[in-house]
Design goal:
single chain; about 60 residues; alpha+beta; two-stranded antiparallel ribbon; 2 helices; about 35% helix; globular
Amino acid sequence: MTKRIDDIVIIEEEEPDFCEYCGKLAELRPYGKNGARICFICGMKNKEETDKNMTKILVEREKN
């Protein structure tokens, strides 16, 4: 799980699962379109969208 505590971001390892974009078994993050859980390789295919989605998740968690 990725979480933010004050100004520190903690990214913990997660169990492998199947990427919603390519189907590869890998460690995933919910940084795809509409929160799709995607692998690193798919995330880097559209780095701008991935960065935007990651930031959105961190900001929403910070508000809660």
